[in-house]
Amino acid sequence: MSRIEWSDEMKIGIAVIDGQHRRIFDYIKQLEGVEESNRRETVAEVIELMLDYTLSHFAFEEALMEEAGYEYLEVHRGTHQAFSRQINALKQRFGSGDDVAQDVSDMLHAWLTNHIMDDDKSYAALVKSKFSLLEDKKGGWLSQAVQRYFG
């Protein structure tokens, strides 16, 4: 498998979402690095951090789409739920002693790349037209949502 790399073509043009996507890619790179060490406890820690962050990202993204009135929110939410089921199955395998680091890395790489390039880009224009994301004042909807989902 080739190493995962973030590229500017993966940007959807919403800075906060692009930053979250990049962070998820960074977690995948970190997972690729620790899987080579075969340290199960370190792999477990990275998987848990990455998955927790990814699920928070999904919740934030869905709230953003809902606030913007995105008509395909339920379809998008369905793709997030399908992803969550896949991840939970991998977590169960890991808990049973299987070495799933490569499977998690491969699945996340393929899924997130496709999801970002297709599904996420489909809502970007609407969200950008509804929010002035670069000028959001402290205490506005966007900054409150970021605080709520990411502390």
What is the name of the CATH superfamily? Hemerythrin-like
**Distance N to C terminus:** 34 Å
Broad structural category: mainly alpha
Shape: elongated
The total of beta strands comes to 0
Please write the string of helix (H) and strand (E) elements: HHHHH
Give the tally of structural domains. Answer: 1
CATH architecture descriptor name: Up-down Bundle
What fold name goes in the CATH topology slot? Four Helix Bundle (Hemerythrin (Met), subunit A)
List the total number of helices: 5
Q: In terms of quaternary structure, what is this?
A: single chain
* Rg, nearest Å: 16 Å
Contiguous uncertain segments of 5+ residues: none
The major pleated sheet works out as: none
Written account of the structure:
- With 151 residues, the chain is an all-alpha fold.
- It has one domain: Four Helix Bundle (Hemerythrin (Met), subunit A), CATH 1.20.120.
- It has five helices and no strands.
- It has helices at residues 15-35, 40-68, 73-95, 101-130, 141-150.
- Helix 1 (15-35) runs antiparallel to helix 2, helix 1 packs antiparallel against helix 4 and helix 2 packs parallel to helix 4 (101-130).
- 21% of the residues are buried.
List its traits.
single chain; about 150 residues; mainly alpha; Four Helix Bundle (Hemerythrin (Met), subunit A); 5 helices; about 0% strand; elongated
Helix and strand layout, with pairings?
Elements: H1 15-35, H2 40-68, H3 73-95, H4 101-130, H5 141-150
Provide a short characterization of the protein structure:
The chain is mostly helical and 151 residues long. The protein is built from 5 helices and no strands. The radius of gyration is 16 Å and the shape is elongated.
